[in-house]
Structures are given as structure tokens and as C-alpha cells.
Amino acid sequence: MKDVQVDVLIIGAGPSGCVAAAYLHKHQVNVKVVEKNVFPRFVIGESLLPRCMDHFEEVGLLNALIAQNFEIKSGARFIKGDTICEFDFAEKYTAGYDWTWQAPRADFDFALTEELKKQGVDIAFNQEVVAVEFDKDGASQTTVKTENGDEYNIKAKFIIDSSGYGRVLPRLLKLDKPSTIPEHSSIFSHVKELYRPQGTEGTFITFDVLDTDTWFWVIPFSNGNTSIGFVGKTDFINSFEGTPEERLAEMLKKSSYYYERFKNVDFLFEPKIIQNYSKSVTQLYGKGYALTGNSAEFLDPVFSSGVTFATESGLKAAKLITRELNNEPVDWEKEYAEYIKKGVSVFASYVKEWYTGNLQTIFFEGADNKEIKRQICAVLAGYVWDETNPFVKNHHRLIKTVANIIRLEKRSTQ
User: Fold this and answer.
1) How far does the chain reach from its first CA to its final CA, in angstroms?
2) How far from 133 is each of 12, 142, 173, CA to CA, in Å?
3) Does pLDDT of 55 surpass 80?
4) How far apart are CA 399 and CA 362, in angstroms?
5) Which residue, among 37, 21, 260, 67, has the nearest Cα to 165 in the 3D structure?
6) What residues contact 118, with CB distance under 8 A and at least 6 apart?
7) Closest CA to 181 of 284, 282, 279
8) Could you tell me if 293 and 281 are in contact, meaning their C-beta atoms sit under 8 angstroms apart?
9) What is the pLDDT of residue 274?
10) CB neighbours (10 Å) of residue 296?
11) 182/71: higher pLDDT
12) Three-state DSSP class for residue 201
């Protein structure tokens, strides 16, 4: 193949790359997307947050997604023993979308790329980035290998790495660093529900909390399939023996709420296992590149932050690049790194406090405080950059403080 020259190369055609590409294309920026896989392809991250709806709408991708009739997600349910805590996105603190989707990512991402292709965006599938070199001015030359093993070069003024869990630039530029999120692993699959319960019970996304460190997700899709999976400490996941099917089937017995619903259901594919999945990087940008979504930070999935963080960072990077290409000044540290880190920090606090038990105390023992619930609901909806929300602005200490108050009040009544 001949070498290619573009303004912006985007690595990865997931939600982050698609949102970035849609924005850049809309603003007459010459962009090329390179994707290692062939779509549709399976990927985890099937539960979205309302915040990402703003992004899809802004770049002109929302209507194409609405046409797919994915399952509407209007909130989330958390179960622990006999206690149920439900969040309704319509009752959140921050203004914005009060719904989103739970959808098979193979179908969701395919719908995005098909719409981009209709709009004229150049997307190359089954092509792998194998090397990259940067000049002092940030211009780059990326070596790409095709499905036939041939190689060609893409010269670009800027690279957006939206490669997700593939983490292309972090690997090539040695930017990885250990995450501060506790080490957990997951095992998951899809099932076909022939006897799904009617009404809300059959469609509500639910997190069945078995203990402080272990939980089971249930994400029903509109096509009749359901995503199920366990998250727990790596030692717990590895304590089950046998094939992946045998391990997941045995683990299902741990969920008293869902075991009867799923005990005889066949897995649609061999359960997949991801170990110690949380990742981090030493920097979010450099001269001539930006890392977006899971390519930058891969957080624990307990609050479904993946796609929202991906689209938020993808759109932000695209906007800053457009300005820079128009010779406008851009402060990447302040306008990108600090901004993205604020949101990541909020999400990370909630993940950490979930596993300390503090957030679970609020969910299952203090959820009757409607104002606190509204403020936490806004975080669960993805509005983690709204610093008028006390549970965003004071996320480092407020969760622990409220949990301690709940425990003290409980002791005083005993």
C-alpha cells in the first residue's frame, strides 16, 4: 500500500475514536481511523452512562444509535442480601440526560462506524499499528501492518490513541504505570434468556453484591440476550476450578437472587476472564499525541464509567486538536490533562470507597436521604465534572464522612 498523509490519525474505532473522528470530520479536519479488529467484534463495557449521550448528540451520532433500538437504561439497581438500592437518573442532582443504553458493544460500535463511513470518514479495519516515530514538532510517522502482512506508513500532524484495552501508545512509548485501584479480576459471558421475567425485573441493570469485594452484574439487552459476570479479588476468581464454563456455572450459585434465573441457561460463548484489569499511565498527552478513554485509564467497571470517560476524553482531545490546527493556543496540561484527571479522580474515589465498604454503607444503610441520593446519582450518571455537586467537589472525603455518620447513627439507635 502507498503511504498516507493526514492531519490526524486515530488509533481505534471504539466510542472514543468514533466521537473524536466525527467531531474532526465535521470541522473539515483530514482524519484516518485505523482499527486492529474487524467489526462487529466483541468487547466488554456494555453499560453506558447518560453523560455520554451529550457527546453523541454533539457530534451527530445520536440518531444513528437511537435507530438501533438498544435497551433503555434509566437507572441502576444494587442488591445486597435483602436490601435493594435503586437509582433513577431522572432524579439526579445535575441537569442532563436521564437515560442511556445497555447494549452489546459489538452492535453498538458497529453502528457508530457504519454511520461514520456514511459520513465519509476513512476507517481501515484489520490493520495493526506496529511502530511510531515522532519528530520534535510533534509530527509522526506510524507504521501499520495490513491483514496480508504488508506495511505502510501514515504521516500525521497529531495522533489520538483510542485503542482502549490495547493501549497502543502506552506500550510503544512505555507510558504504563501501576493503577492505584485495588486488583480485581472478572469472568463473564452472554446468555440467551428464553424465559426472561416480564417488565422492569427482566430489563433492569443490576449489581448483586455478594460481599465488599465481590459482585455479580446482570445487563439485559433488547435482543433477548443478557450479559452476566462476576468481579472479585483475583484470588477469589482463581479459586474456582475447571473450564471457564464450569467456573462461571459454579460461581452463579453464589447469587441467591439470580441463581434460579440463570442456572440452566447456556453460555453463548466461552466465558472470558480478565485479570487485574485496572491500568494507568504516566502522562495523558505528549508532543503530537493524546491518550483517550481506556487507553489512558482503565478503571474498575463497578460504575460503568468506561464508555463515558472514553467519549468525554475523545471529544475533548478532538476539540483541542482542531484549535491547534487553526493556530490557536492550547494549554494541554490545563485544558486536557487536568480536566480529564478531575473526572478520573472522582470515578476512582467512588471505586475505592466502594471496596472500602464506605459507599456500600451509604447505598444500603443511608439511601433514605433523598438529597444525598440525588447527588450520588449524578455521579453514577457520569456528571463527574460538575463541581456544584458536593459529592463531586468533595469526593475525596465526603463519602467516608457520610458513611461514618450513618454508622454512628445506627449504633446510637441500637
Assistant:
1) 75
2) 18, 6, 10
3) yes
4) 8
5) 37
6) none
7) 279
8) no
9) 85
10) 29
11) 71
12) helix
Residue pair 407/361 in contact by the 8 Å Cβ criterion: yes
72 with 99: CB under 8 angstroms? yes
| 40 and 109 Cβ atoms separated by less than 8 Å | yes
Give me the amino acid identity at 221.
Answer: F
Does residue 155 sit in helix, strand or coil?
A: strand
Q: What is the DSSP string of 271-334?
A: PEEE-S--BEES-SEETTEEE-GGGT-B--GGG--HHHHHHHHHHHHHHHHHHHHTT----HII
| Model pLDDT, residue 180 | 64
Type of residue found at 338: E
Q: What percent of the chain has pLDDT over 70?
A: 96
User: Any residues with CB less than 8 A from the CB of 302 and at least 6 apart, and which?
Assistant: 207, 215, 231, 351, 354
Number of Cβ atoms within 10 Å of the Cβ of 335: 15
Q: What is the pLDDT of residue 175?
A: 84
Q: Which of 220, 185, 215 is nearest to 205 (CA)?
A: 220
The CA-atom distances, in angstroms, between 172 and each of 2, 132, 261, 292, 348 are 23, 8, 45, 15, 26
Please indicate, yes or no, whether the overall pTM of this predicted structure exceeds 0.70: yes
Residue of 142, 115, 97, 94 lying closest to 15 (CA atoms): 115
Q: Is the pLDDT assigned to residue 245 strictly greater than 60?
A: yes
165 compared with 346, residue with greater pLDDT: 346
pLDDT at 298: 60
The answer to whether the beta carbons of residues 152 and 146 sit under 8 Å apart is yes
CA–CA separation, 223 and 257 (whole Å): 23
Only one residue has cell 514538532, namely 137
Q: Give the rounded distance of the alpha carbon of 65 from its chain centre.
A: 17
